[in-house]
Amino acid sequence: MSMSVIRATSVSKRVVTNQTELTILDDISLDISQGETIAIIGTSGAGKSTLMTLLAGLDVASSGDVELLGQSLSLLGDEERAAIRSQSIGFVFQSFLLIPSLTALENVTLPSILRGDSEDNDRAMALLKSVGLEGRETHLPSQLSGGEQQRVALARAFMVQPKVLFADEPTGNLDQHTASTIIELLFSMNREHGTTLVLVTHDSALADRCDRVLTINAGQLGEEEWSK
Asked: Model pTM?
């Protein structure tokens, strides 16, 4: 039986605005096994990205608990959660989030440097080659197309050999052709590295590639959760 890498138990997220309490997520429970690929889908504002931030330890639940790689996030402080992310978690975002003043190579090596490792240029070069950017190592983000920037972001996400990769609308800013290329890269790299993948998407083609699709509707996990 596969080991559970993420477990959410009765997780809710509430925020107070103008003396009104708004429930963004309500009593979410789910279990994600090692090596699974999971898509979280739903309409805009349904709570998809909020759920991802809780599962990744970027935010904490108002009630309930999230276990990430065997650790209860509600029992950890900000620095302890940050340490888990820097050691074991990769991220890919819709807006790429590359550092404008750093070259492609420097952007890829950044996660290693931030967690105190030596600058492993050889691994970064190999990752850039694997996403088809050999020869573009010294280019700044402004010298790269949107698709190329997302390839750099993919390479960066795998730099620390993450156990879990979170991807939030990774094809949202790309045209259809470029998006399909990124999808192929994402899943091939995920298989190669044996990573658990959790992605938030509006893209049905992307969701269909996953082992399971979870539907969030008005802050609740929909009954139409299904496995393929």
From this structure: 0.89
